[in-house]
Design a protein that fits this description.
Helix content is 29%, strand content 27%. The chain is an alpha/beta fold. The strands form 7 sheets. Strands 7-8-10-11-13-12 form a 6-stranded mixed β-sheet. Helix 8 links the parallel strand 10 (174-180) and strand 11. Helix 1 (22-36) runs antiparallel to helix 9 and helix 3 (64-73) packs antiparallel against helix 9. The chain is elongated and about 85 Å long.
């Protein structure tokens, strides 16, 4: 048969980092169906972070909405991203994937107790398409410390991928890696591992409008949020008969025909999710406002919640985690989710007084508190000022920047720059996002699986907690300015 024959053509379609943007999934499904009307055969892969608990459909269904969409769209294999692996407990993820009709492939995760991959996860799979055997490997970003807290160990991705490639080489005609490792790691893998034909990438939200070739390996990536649908076309080589890349691109996802079956399923999941999230979790007699440039009760409540949960001397959290004020009356789980959708976890660290004082100074600078930030789980609009609990902060707003904090007292005693303090804060800060001096902490203890909205829920149920949130932590004074 001629090598250019359409009967042997294989098209790979791929998505990544959809982050539960359900609004585009029915459109993407329609585009996929249109592509499938073409000649040859097709494979469809997702490269992780399909689930994001910021979306009501995902939160209210614990990922079942995403699994139903994956099934309806006809995916052939998926891997997990950090949003699947770290924002769901292993038990919840197992429940969600129990209904998935395609394999989940990921070779660098194993259970600590058993030393094996979870029962729903494969290190690789082999798919027969267009008369060829396609080896599919998966790997995910190695947040080792976080996975350990959830009962998983992360293995060295390069070593595990190389082992899978070696085992697949004799039995396959083409090897694909579904990589939620990021573009920089993908480039390294392409240069290191012989026999890896194609890397479909995610995690770093990179867009490769056409495949990047490194050695004998091609790299592809379709950005994020369903903005693009990746497309790779393969045909057999005339001499060896193995597959080779003919072309690759990313198709822009623009308004157009939608798959009604997918859109109906999403709508039903959305309705059911809203009903589940209507459960009342607390009742308050006072509205809790939020401000991003100054102290506010809801910000204080979050700081209280983090300090209480972590058992720390003091707490530092940013008001930007909270998207709206909380009204008086019945508070539902959905209201907390809407106001605090980020999959952010609390943590504890030891931090020198100088870094605490510097961060408090930064909190008084509008260019910092109003900064728009992205990534590492943050789903807010702006960074926001620092909310504290356990501290009394005296400051002079008329002084010049970085000279406004006159004194910060812990239990009535001024913080000493050289002393270390036990601080409850947010995991986001340890990655250098926002108030960067908070990365200087030592003895970090990450606390999973609780999100900060879970802590808010508990704090609202604590007697006297709402009233305490109205007590000021920041006090303005006039007079001598700290040098």
């Amino acid at each position: 048969m001629p090598p250019e024959s359409n009967l042997n053509k294989l098209t790979i379609l791929h998505t990544n980092d959809l982050h539960s943007h359900f609004g585009v999934m029915a459109r993407i499904s329609s585009m996929i169906n249109e592509e499938r009307k073409g000649e040859g055969e097709f494979l469809l892969f997702d490269i992780g972070d399909h689930m994001d608990r910021m979306a009501v459909e995902t939160e209210g269904s614990m990922g079942q909405a995403n699994v139903d969409v994956l099934n309806l769209m006809g995916y052939d294999a998926v891997t997990i991203g950090n949003n699947e692996g770290l924002t769901f407990t292993p038990e919840l993820l197992a429940q969600a994937y129990a209904g998935l009709t395609c394999p989940v492939v990921c070779c660098n995760i194993k259970e600590r107790d058993t030393g094996r991959a979870p029962v729903w996860m494969k290190k690789h799979t082999v798919l027969d398409k267009a008369g060829f055997r396609i080896g599919v490997i998966g790997a995910t970003a190695p947040y080792a410390e976080f996975y350990r807290l959830l009962g998983w160990d992360v293995l060295d991705a390069a070593a595990e991928i190389a082992e899978q490639v070696e085992s697949l080489k004799p039995h396959t005609d083409f090897i694909v890696l579904l990589s939620h490792l990021g573009i920089h790691t993908d480039k390294e893998l392409a240069g290191q591992i012989d026999g890896l034909d194609l890397i479909l990438g995610g995690h770093t939200h990179h867009l490769l409008e056409e495949p990047l070739r490194i050695g004998n390996t091609y790299l592809a990536g379709a950005e994020k949020f369903g903005h693009f649908l990746g497309k790779i076309t393969l045909i057999p080589e005339s001499e060896s008969g193995r597959l080779r890349l003919l072309s690759g691109c990313c198709l822009a996802v623009e308004p157009g025909r939608e798959n009604s079956e997918v859109s109906t399923a999403i709508e039903i999941h959305g309705q059911h999710a809203q009903e589940r999230l209507e459960q009342t979790v607390a009742i308050t007699t006072r509205e809790l406002p939020i401000q991003y440039a100054q102290e506010s009760p809801l910000g204080n409540l979050l700081a209280q919640a983090v300090r209480r949960f972590t058992g720390s001397d003091l707490s530092l959290v940013n008001s930007g985690q909270l998207l709206d004020s909380l009204p008086a009356g019945e508070i539902s789980a959905g209201m907390l989710h809407a106001r605090c959708p980020s999959p952010i976890n609390p943590c504890q660290m030891r931090l020198r007084g100088e870094h605490i004082l510097y961060s408090l100074e930064q909190s008084l600078i509008p260019e910092i508190s109003e900064k728009v930030i992205y990534g590492y789980g943050f789903r807010g609009k702006v960074l926001g000022n620092l909310c504290v609990d356990g501290l009394e902060v005296l400051y002079n707003p008329a002084a010049k920047p970085y000279h406004r904090i006159v004194q910060a007292n812990l239990a009535g005693v001024p913080l000493e720059p050289e002393e270390e303090y036990l601080v409850g804060t947010l995991d986001m800060f340890t990655f250098g996002i926002g108030y960067k001096r908070l990365t200087q902490g030592t003895d970090k203890v990450y606390m999973l699986p609780e999100f900060i909205r879970d802590l808010l829920r508990t704090e609202l149920q604590e007697p006297g907690a709402v009233d305490s949130s109205f007590l000021s932590r920041w006090a303005t004074i006039q007079g001598e300015v700290k040098k």
